[in-house]
């Protein structure tokens, strides 16, 4: 795009979960480099001290933005042009229950934040929070664009639209980027093309968050689906090495196996993909997981990591550490620029289905490409989810809709219908499913308001 | 309906699978009582001797019809006004593989003809047969109404429409009738109403064959859903007694359990319902099955039963036995009368979804009520499949569409996508699923033409 | 239906527009003959004196119901099991503007209450009234079944659903009955079948109110579409005689002409049908109208008729006239009986499209057959509107949706978009259309609250 | 897009209508500048001499392509990577009938090639030609991308898909470009921004060809809809001067009037827009047309223009004139480059609706933006056609579908249903409509094969 008119924009960005010690710093970093944007970032967090800490850190990040922590959501959100939502629903204690309680019943989850028993319990405590947030946006900044980063992504975005149908919200996830990088690796290894840029790797994306599929891909005139086949043939056991204590990496063996079986490229990390499949496929037990080249992420690790990030926050505030700039790999600030009219580009996004995926239900939150431009996020027609994958995907897509309904009406019977038909609950009898569900509810009841627990 | 004009009709009914020793005799019985119908029944069967036997037996059945066996489908079908299809795809040897081979892998099936590994293998050998039959109808009697009784019902009906889209075909199944009788029992026990007639028990039916659900039911001003709740409360362990060697009965415990969990009335026998649920629910192992008050039907029993029916056929032909008349409980002849304009009534039927169930895919064969009248089968808007049940139902509905596509294109890779995501295959790893699939294909390859086996 | 259990029902029917001197008396008549129904009819009317008069007349009608006039809608509607709405939106002075003001611009309307400039203006004053009524129902008797008789039918029913989406409302119109009688005439004349009953003349109905089409029709085994062709061929100039001052009759020439052109049976009276077609077809000028065998109904006639009905009301109250019983030809009481579970039958009805007509927009109020049974009105899949007719029908269907939106938001610019694209406004330039619209608004502004006039 | 890999492509482009003296030369011009494309252009035309002439002229155009005329469509199309279709259906004698015969009945058409009586007659003779062409593509180059330029656009593209559903065809039209230029003028006049490039004027396009609407538009951060309002307010009588003998220009008064009435930007030239509206709006008579600032294009002018182009062809062949290069303003070659993977961009295109416009029928050919990239044309979700415009648009959209059906089945009764309900036929009685239709058929019957004329 030939930018004839150089325009600068002054905006207000409200950050819900503004005490974050991760995403928030990446945003600060990216904003510090956006030399055509000016304004304020208002930080709102139920942990006000954390927001205050980020007020301090934000000031250190450089750039054209000022950072203010607010105790009142009204102040934080009024007149916001953009709202970013990135929260932890509950604490890691609740996540510990989500992820590890099912292990007693033989259910192993690699992430536990999207689908499976953990994903559903997390959803049940997130939905009331998002109900509140949607109300804030409706009341204080109904015209703002809202970017969600919280998981379970589909459930969060759907809740926002259910509560405030006129909301201009979308959800962002960088899982697809990883697959684009895998294509770049294949281009390098098999075609000698180095440094292929992600933006030049064009993919057609269809599916739901963390179970997204690529049905067409190209790098200029090179068909990347053909290349991918060649790549898999050369790497029958996946690519790269994976160590058991590597909790986020994978060898892409699950992704390769799914391609072999279903003929399309699954576009998330293996840890996510495995959770959408029948429980005996990749997550039967920890040994099976390792054999497929990835690991279960223990919540104990997340707790340790949080402690490290708290220390880093303290160091940043005290000056013991300097604010680090880098390549965040995130697109949020570019999306903001596009929505202001300063750019226009196509990327993947999570929004309710208005027809972009004809064989998923209208209204379900789906992930496809969209054109970002001034005040517009227009999905591209992504085409049908590939036939063989569809029956698996619909189980989750329908159960997510059921869960949102259950959460909004605080109906645990309805929620259990989603729970007991989840693919990872396959191994349970009805009675076991009920017992596990009840135990997980009891464990996390402090964050389940209004459910009558 | 006030029948002012008494009309008599002369028609030709073609019976594909006309050597049948079950359905065919019921049809003869019902036709013998239809005093306003005259004409010919043409019997076509790949076992011509069996068709000839029924030519003899038909002559003994009384009534206004003549019975002729034909060796050529062209002769049998030309000028037919109605076509009835009721075949056995393969022999009981193939069915033995369908039902019992999966047991080696821990998969138990109560019927094995609709869903699960057995249902899918049966589908793969039925689809080429129905492809041929649809071609016959297109070529010899394109205006005929076609009634299908063969299982897997949805797959058979879908294949007919795929091959000859203008076909006027529908599928009939009496499973819903059984639930209406259960309502009649409840009316008797709880309200003292004796002999409630099935036609007065109005039900709204939505779903797919053998996994049909009743969302509204009444007997005059009595709400039968409320009554059903009361009935279940009084019978926490189901109704009636079930003995292990009772291979077709059940205590309705599965049906009651599903109502408790999903809030709607499942309207098939427990043996069918269990096969649509996760494998660990009702079919975990033979002990679990018995505990839920039903039995696995062994194919050895079917073989014995067939021998008895063959003997009966011989006895009927030789005059050692007399043709028995009774109440068949079937609606086929009434449907024929309605399509001729002699009656009009509402009953349940399997046809492609044109919108009667908004939350199932268009084109999938679904079961709902329809108005039968002169040259018309008009589905009633049945409403959405209840939320909680939908994710289970879609797994099968989508896999059936995939299987039909796989069968018509003889694509075993595609068929395996349906196979490995079937709910009863839950307990298998991908490799085990492949091994079982291959073994079942090998066992039945004589009836799998064109698949490259 | 074999009514084993003889049940009697005590119900409350609320009548909005209960001062009516037409429909209300028919209802009284029909209720007086329903020996299995008991209860109260509560009469509510903005003309309380008229409601009081009907309280008196109702008492004279005999039967098991008591009649009470209420000044408060709350009292009238609370605990109602059924609500009947039959009102005159405004007075005949407003209708005089609706029908006759457009004549200055060369637009002639035979009825002026459904479509055309008159229909749209009538809609604009009816929508706020129905907004209020829908609110009453939501607040006082949300579970009641609501039967609408007011025109414009589609607009009234749509408004009820827009304001209170959970409403159980439907609209009834007897125009289709007239076409069934025409079939009966043809059966008599061409086949010698006398006294064919309407209920035995089965029709498939698809379209929108007053522009409904019959795509399949039979009397037992007789195809009535074929018979209709024969009938038309024999009556090239229509059937029956029509005199200029016969304001409601017609010779069915329009209906026959539409059949010849479009190949399907238009199922309303010619006066209604003509208004959905391009202005130059049947309503070009009064001479053209007469040539097609029908008349424009002047509002002066309606005023005279009203005076006669007022006199009749006075006579009934004073005892100068006795309450007359007859065959009303209406189905309302039968529908009530069916909804109570005392009967079950199929008839035509106006409800929002949930898929029963695939090629009309979802949500548009459409007219098709439906099965009436205990607490249920289930539309039958009516099939597509015939191709050639569809483009005409969509003009009105879309404009009705636009008009309801315009009425609810009191947006006259939006309303004008429907007005200027109406088929009867064909002959106007944009400026003339605007002038006519403004004049009609000014004429009727006393009944257009909130529009800023 | 950062083109790292410089790729050159050798392709075969087949040109149906390759004797063209307009589009063909523009293509030659654009191809001569595409320095990354090489190959052959095969010219096929029923006028072989004309194709031969272009073989000569093509050689003069420079660049990397060779030009060959073929007498056999098989040779021309075999192995083609791209097919361009740009034909004249019949001669200008037929078009003379299309455009001017209706004038006898008071119907004036400014173009007469898309809609109105002329558009429908042109469709009826084009459909059989496109039926043939679709067959060629299916048989000789089923994988080729097919670009259509012939009018009536929607009808041509729909016919291709009806005959060969797997075709990869789309239709291109530059009418939207004109509106983008109008925005550029407004940017210059009102904001002082000179030389705004069309690619930087981002528009969201929804509708059908020649009746396309822009619902969102921006130039970087400038909202062009707001700007357009301002522009219209400043130019109440349109922009620019129009002389009666200026047959292609206009003052945009129709466009401005439609904006005022419907609140969205109509995106074609006024000559096209007027033909979709009721006949009395802009085309009542020649005086009205002039008053709205445009002209009726007489076919006599087209004939004269053709003579000039024939002369130019002769001059080019003889060397009396040199091949002229310029800015064609066409996108075809860029689209070809994108489909080869050499570029990726968003532009407007005509393809069957798969959901990109939710309130137009699925399958109707619609015009929206699409992303062009390697082997892909993915429509963007364009959103609903604005409410007020929809009823007008559906009349044409449905009539186009009806016309294609009528053309493929050679069913003139069906075609007449579209004809008599067209908005420009408003002024006719049914009998007049029939007479005009018959006269136009008779006039052009040499090009109406198989219709039984």
> Which strand order does the major sheet of chain A show?
3-2-1-4-5-6
- What's the pLDDT, averaged over the residues of chain A? 96
**Between the first and last Cα atoms of chain A, what is the distance in angstroms?**
56 Å
Largest interface: A-D, 43 and 43 residues
Shape of chain A: globular
- Number of helical stretches of at least 4 residues of chain A: 17
Radius of gyration of chain A: 21 Å
Strand content of chain A: 15-25%
Any low-confidence stretches of chain A, pLDDT <50, length ≥5? none
- Quaternary arrangement of the chains shown? homotetramer
The total count of strands of chain A amounts to 13
What is the helical fraction of chain A, as a range of percent? 40-55%
How can the largest sheet of chain A be summarized?
6 strands, parallel
- Based on secondary structure, the structural category of chain A is alpha/beta
Strand/helix succession of chain A: EHEHEHEHHEHEHEEEHHEHHHHHEEEHHH
Family (chains A, B, C, D): Belongs to the glycosyl hydrolase 4 family.
GO molecular function, one term (chains A, B, C, D): hydrolase activity, hydrolyzing O-glycosyl compounds
Site (Increases basicity of active site Tyr) (chains A, B, C, D): 113
Binding site for substrate (chains A, B, C, D): 151
């Amino acid at each position: 795009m030939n930018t004839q008119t150089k325009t600068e924009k002054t905006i207000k960005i409200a950050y819900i979960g503004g005490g974050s010690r991760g995403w928030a710093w990446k945003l600060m970093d990216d904003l510090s480099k956006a030399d055509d944007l000016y304004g304020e970032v208002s930080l709102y967090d139920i942990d006000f001290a954390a927001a205050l800490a980020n007020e301090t850190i934000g000031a250190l990040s450089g750039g054209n933005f000022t950072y203010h922590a607010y105790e009142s959501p009204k102040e934080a959100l009024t007149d916001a042009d953009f709202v970013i939502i990135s929260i932890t629903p509950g604490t890691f204690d609740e996540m510990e229950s989500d992820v590890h309680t099912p292990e007693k019943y033989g259910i192993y989850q690699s992430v536990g934040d999207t689908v499976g028993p953990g994903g559903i319990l997390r959803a049940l405590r997130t939905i009331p929070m998002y109900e509140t947030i949607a109300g804030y946006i409706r009341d204080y900044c109904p015209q703002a664009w809202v970017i969600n980063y919280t998981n379970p992504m589909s459930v969060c975005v759907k809740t926002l639209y259910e509560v405030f149908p006129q909301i201009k919200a979308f959800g962002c996830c960088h899982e697809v980027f990883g697959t684009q990088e895998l294509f770049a690796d294949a281009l390098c290894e098999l075609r000698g093309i180095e440094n292929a840029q992600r933006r030049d790797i064009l993919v057609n994306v269809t599916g739901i968050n963390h179970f997204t599929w690529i049905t067409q891909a190209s790098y200029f005139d090179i068909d990347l689906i053909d290349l991918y086949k060649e790549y898999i043939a050369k790497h029958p056991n996946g690519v790269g090495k994976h160590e058991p204590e590597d909790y986020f990496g994978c060898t892409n063996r699950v992704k390769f196996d799914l391609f072999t079986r279903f003929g399309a490229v699954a576009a998330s990390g293996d840890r996510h993909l495995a959770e959408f499949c029948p429980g005996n496929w990749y997550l039967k037990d920890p040994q099976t997981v390792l054999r497929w080249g990835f690991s279960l992420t223990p919540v104990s690790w997340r707790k340790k990591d949080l402690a490290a990030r708290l220390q880093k926050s303290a160091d940043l505030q005290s000056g013991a550490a300097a604010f680090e700039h880098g390549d965040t790999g995130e697109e949020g600030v570019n999306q903001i620029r596009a929505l202001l009219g300063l750019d226009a580009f196509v990327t993947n996004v999570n929004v309710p289905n208005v027809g972009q995926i004809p064989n998923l239900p209208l209204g379900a939150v789906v992930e496809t490409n969209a054109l970002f431009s001034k005040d517009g996020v227009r999905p591209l027609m992504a085409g049908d989810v590939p036939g063989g994958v569809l029956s698996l995907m619909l189980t989750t897509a329908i159960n997510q809709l059921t869960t949102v309904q259950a959460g909004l009406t605080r109906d645990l019977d309805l929620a259990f219908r989603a729970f007991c038909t989840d693919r990872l609950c396959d191994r349970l009898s009805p009675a076991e499913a009920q017992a596990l569900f009840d135990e997980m509810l009891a464990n996390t009841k402090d964050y389940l308001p209004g459910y009558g627990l």
